[in-house]
Amino acid sequence: MSVFIHLHDIPEREIIPGFFAKMIHTEGLTVAHFRILAGSILPEHHHIHEQVTNVISGELEMTIGGETHVCKAGQCAAIPSNMPHSARALTDCYVVDVFRPTRDDYR
Question: Which of 2, 15, 89, 101 is the most exposed place for a label (fewest CB within 10 A)?
Fold first, then answer.
């Protein structure tokens, strides 16, 4: 992997309906740039990875551990390992998620 990465060079993949990602993987973490279509739903799930969701644009309703909040541009959510969480895009969104350790299931 190159030290310098241009997002235009990374192919976009639809992870689940309405969630389109460009992934960067290192030995210890994954950075996922998500383009999310309004109305798209991320069903409740959990994983071993710690996750920080950074909302760059749009409004993303997130439920983490039973608490629901609408995250807008400039807001972040820190999700502990194995914490149940879900999301719903209220508008088109651009989100950058950081996962630790690396999401091998996204490779």
Answer: 2
Nearest in space to 38 (alpha carbons), one of 88, 74, 89:
89
Task: Flag whether pLDDT at 55 surpasses 70.
Answer: yes
Instruction: Say what the pTM is.
Output: 0.94
- Average pLDDT (37-50) is 98
Report the distance separating Cα 41 and Cα 31, nearest Å: 20
List Cβ<8 Å contacts ≥24 apart for 62-69: 62/86, 62/87, 63/87
Amino acid identity of residue 70, one-letter, is V
Going along the chain from its start, the domains and CATH numbers come out as: 41-96 (2.60.120.10)
Tell me how far CA of residue 91 lies from CA of 13, 88, 105, in angstroms. 20, 9, 27
